[in-house]
Amino acid sequence: MSLSLIVNPFLRPPRTNGVSESSHLFCALYPAKHIRPGKLKVQASGNTLGTYFRVTTYGESRGGGVGCIIDGCPPRIPLSEADVQVELDRRRPGQSRLVSPRKETDTCQIYSGIAEGLTTGSPIMVHVPNTDQTAHDYSELSRAYRPSHADATYDFKYGVRAIQGGGRSSARETIARVAAGAVAKKILKKFSGTEVLAYVSQVHNVRLPEHLVDHESLNLDQIEESIVRCPNAEYAKKMIAAIDAVMARGDSVGGVVSCIARNVPRGLGSPVFNKLEAQLARAAMSLPASIGFEFGSGFAGTLMSGSEHNDEFYIDKRGRIRTRTNHSGGIQGGISNGEVLNMRIAFKPTPTIEMKQHTVTRDKHETEILSHIRRDPCVAPRAVPVVESMIALVLVDQIMAQYAQCELFPINTALQEPMGSLSSTLPTFPVEKVGCVADPSVGL
């Protein structure tokens, strides 16, 4: 069997005696008959989310700025920089004593995709410049790895990294997600009246009981009333005290952000690999410092019996099929059922702390490190708008997928509902006409 190696130059390691060591392995794995010349491609960047509503983020914490390119946005959506800025202001640092003191206005600029205040359907570029850069804060990090940061693994993977600010692993990258999320939220509101809201439900061991939050009436003002973004005043005070206490000793704590989505169209998500909860989990777990995801009853559901956990159906006053409980979190079989989506995302304690820790240097010597870098003692409060944005991005992408597959032709009104206000004018047909018999006299 003849063997052939076809590889782009950037993939080739240094050669020894004219043949690289990896060439032998590559040839063993890929015989010539399985390789088409010029067809070998490497696609492993991971900077793009979505299939129909695609968002690509760029930039680093200490570079010229960060931003995103949104491709697939529907045309004729009213959009301005002010619409995006409202969401960015909720995420920016320096807004309270509980977050990083870095002074950034995070002022956005939209460079393309807008004409006369409306989206044009072409790619939208949103850019936010970095202004408060203090590279000297990171001088010690040029030689030693911060425990539980991405410093070491970036070196392990790439052999090089942006030392100042953590590069792409910095939470500053989430600016781009929030900017794109602002556009997604506008689409959801306009198309189906869908609203995505998140709030802090736990800081360290202070946990807000779920029954104290009414997910049907919860609003943004209730969430933003507290600097910790907990909609319950009593528990908000406890959470703030917990963060203050750990911040005073230079340490950090983790937290949980709960997120709901109301008025979500039925039918979003697909069976097996593209279940809606799987898509939501992927988006949430891509966030910096995220370490866990639950939807519906989550792990607590394992403590219930089937008779307790099952969501029984009933017909509401409008003649719609509903569930009396929502242990499923608005998703059954990987597909949205029209109930409120309910999920929780756990975030680890901020790894940057003002305490001595054991570590190693890049040249493999054990040492100690003490960081004096600006940081959030708990990431949960600022993660709230970021979580909302990620969920909104997934829902818009899934709405487009559902429309393309299941509403391209008239829907079955006996079993299906049009997804949004814009869908109410679509033609429909009754259930008895779902099937058809081919007429042999008609050519196909």
From TrEMBL:
What's the catalysed reaction? 5-O-(1-carboxyvinyl)-3-phosphoshikimate = chorismate + phosphate
List GO terms (cellular component aspect): cytosol
Cite the EC number. Answer: 4.2.3.5
* Pathway note: Metabolic intermediate biosynthesis; chorismate biosynthesis; chorismate from D-erythrose 4-phosphate and phosphoenolpyruvate: step 7/7
Q: Which Pfam families match?
A: Chorismate_synt
Annotated GO biological processes are: amino acid biosynthetic process; aromatic amino acid family biosynthetic process; chorismate biosynthetic process
Q: Which SUPFAM superfamilies match?
A: Chorismate synthase, AroC
Superkingdom, according to UniProt?
Eukaryota
Q: Which Gene3D superfamilies match?
A: Chorismate synthase AroC
Q: Which UniProt keywords apply?
A: Amino-acid biosynthesis, Aromatic amino acid biosynthesis, Lyase
A single Gene Ontology molecular function, please?
chorismate synthase activity
Name the coenzymes or cofactors required: FMNH2
Name of the top EC class for this enzyme: lyase
The answer to whether UniProt assigns keyword NAD to this entry is no
Sequence similarity: Belongs to the chorismate synthase family.
Functional summary from the UniProt entry: Catalyzes the last common step of the biosynthesis of aromatic amino acids, produced via the shikimic acid pathway.
- The identity of this protein, by name, is chorismate synthase
